[in-house]
Amino acid sequence: MSATTIKAFDTTLQLTYAWLHELAEQMGTQDRHRAYHALWAVLHALRDRLTVEEVAALGAQLPLLVRGIYYEGWHPGNKPLKTRREDFLAAIRAAFRDDPDVDPEEVIQAVFCSCQGM
């Protein structure tokens, strides 16, 4: 029996859990909350540095639940932000400010590697 009885919801939930599981493995942790936080941080940093058209194109390719995470809190005015590498890394570092042992480059790489299988 499915969790919601709505196939689209069940499918996106399964895909999202699979993505978080893969991401947690890439990050060397079993903490799905940490993996979720990494996914959230990288998607938001990326989203804020894309044009509105690019944001929509990427969003259309994401599973339904991940798409909601991606668009959460998005305000397209004054976008895109600077695309310098240092600014992107700073956004990830800021998202993990309470976890100073996190390497932003490793988080970014883990997110991008985990999404290849999705």
What can you see in these coordinates?
By secondary structure, the protein is mainly alpha-helical. The chain has one domain (7-115): Uncharacterized conserved protein DUF2267 (Globin-like). The chain is 64% helix and 0% strand. It has six helices and no strands. Helix 1 (7-27) packs across helix 2 (32-47) and helix 1 crosses helix 6.
Tell me, what's the shape? globular
Instruction: Kindly provide the name of the CATH class.
Output: Mainly Alpha
CATH superfamily caption: Uncharacterized conserved protein DUF2267
CATH architecture: Orthogonal Bundle
**Main sheet characteristics:** none
Work out the count of structural domains. 1
In what range is the share of β-strand residues? under 5%
Unreliable segments of 5+ consecutive residues: none
CATH topology title: Globin-like
Helix and strand layout, with pairings?
Elements: H1 7-27, H2 32-47, H3 52-59, H4 64-71, H5 85-95, H6 104-115
Helix pairs in contact: 1-2, 1-6, 2-5, 5-6
